[in-house]
Structure formats: structure tokens, C-alpha cells
Amino acid sequence: MDELCIVTTGGTIDKLYFDDKSDYQIGAPLIDRMLHKLGVAFRYTVVPLLRKDSLHLTDEDRVAIREAIAAQPARHVLVTHGTDTMVETAQALACLGDRTIVLTGALSPARFRESDAEFNIGTAVGAVQSLPPGVYIAMNGRVWDPKKVRKNVAENRFEAL
């Protein structure tokens, strides 16, 4: 892998909690700070594209994500994304078959001490380097084919169809 392109779209991974409002809002992407802190041994660029909860992503947003990835020279792409519609976005990226694209996110904000964000990002980074071209989802310690996975909202995890 020459360089990893990271496209950020928002989602729980970048949420901030506002105590006085009892509300979450999407903050600035944290992945650059996380990777820098971990001292990763690869080059990467971060393309901060959207700051949306995935429930609010539209078909136009998915087109923008696809176009942003297509415009990048990198053949290895990691997309941070909200978990609720991650599968739909992954399926919308299937036409970019000449690249290895891995979507990941978090079930609790990266700013939280017991977040799954770093674990999921680590899984995604390993996957994007080792898998053949295609689109994948990395969540809960597994790498999934987007056509064969769903989010189980009741259990708050991804599982096979």
C-alpha cells in the first residue's frame, strides 16, 4: 500500500456529547489524531467529506462519497461512516471495483473511553492492506461482504444475513 486515503462522513465515531443539551452532534473527524497517536507506519491522507449521522445520508450524499473516492489517486480507501446505513453506502460503492475500500465506524463515540472506534479502525486498516479490490465492512472484529451482513440494532452489532 503506497498511501491510504481516508474519507470521513460523520457518524457515531465522530460524535460529541453536549451535557447541557443532552444531545449528540457530529464533530471534527478524529481519525487523524488517533492514527498519529498510535504512530502508524504508513502514509495516509484524510478527506473530511461529510459530518452527518448515517440515518440522514441521502442518495446524493452517496454519489458525493463515490465521486470523492473516484477522484483520489489512492487504490486503498478507508471510509469512516455511521453504522445504521453503512451497508447501503458500501453497496453504492461497488462500482469502484478497481480499489480496495473498507467502511468502518463505531457503536459508541471515539471520544468515549470504552469506544470500539480504535479496534474497528485497526481491523479496517489491516483489511484494506490485505484484501483484493472490492468493497468491505469492518466491524466487531470481522470483515464482511456488504451483501451478506446487516446491523442488528437490538443487539448493537453486525451479523451475517
Automatic annotation (TrEMBL):
Signal peptide residue numbers: none
Entries under Pfam families matching the protein: Asparaginase
L-asparaginase N-terminal domain boundaries: 4-156
Enzyme class, spelled out: hydrolase
GO molecular function, one term: asparaginase activity
EC numbers, comma separated: 3.5.1.1
Domain of life the protein comes from: Bacteria
UniProt keyword list: Hydrolase
Hydrolase in keyword set: yes
Protein name, per record: Asparaginase domain-containing protein
Organism, scientific name: Banduia mediterranea
